[in-house]
Amino acid sequence: MAFTLQEKDPKRYRRKARMISVMMVGQLIIFSMLFSLLLSSVMESSLWAHGLGIALGLLATSALFAGLKERPWMGEISYVWQLKNHLSRIQGYQASLERAVDEDNRAALDVLSFYHEGVDQVAALNGKAPDPARVAQKERVLERRQALALPDRVTVFDPHDLSAFTRR
Predict the structure, then answer these.
(1) Which of 1, 23, 58, 151 sits in a 20 to 30 Å window from 101, CA-based?
(2) Hey, how many other C-beta atoms are within 10 angstroms of the C-beta on 45?
(3) What is the pTM of this model?
(4) How far apart are CA 40 and CA 55, in angstroms?
């Protein structure tokens, strides 16, 4: 299924990310304390019971937020998680894609162009400056795209495009 880059407000994203992070930590603490208390009352109070309570608290928090990720108020966070997942998949094929760019492979140019657009968007959403090494790679891909009269930007990524390339 194709993934499309969307415009997101960086300030709104950072505010929601902080709020959700605090909620997750609070939920983890509450669940961990609750499970530790329950396990300590059933079994004798020990480090093992408290450790198991923390592990159960982590599982419960993960399950809760996995169920909530489709809610509208989690839209920005869910979008960025998906984007980072796609970017990490592309990064696994980076060497093969770079070789294919040298051969003017259109699919490789599209995937790498999307990759650089996505990395720039994640950096902007997190309030960070782009990596100078990535800027040089992006410029190289852009020059190749312009030489082949391809559009400068690619905002859609189909994971099936990676099947033509080898992983690392």
Answers:
(1) 1
(2) 12
(3) 0.83
(4) 14
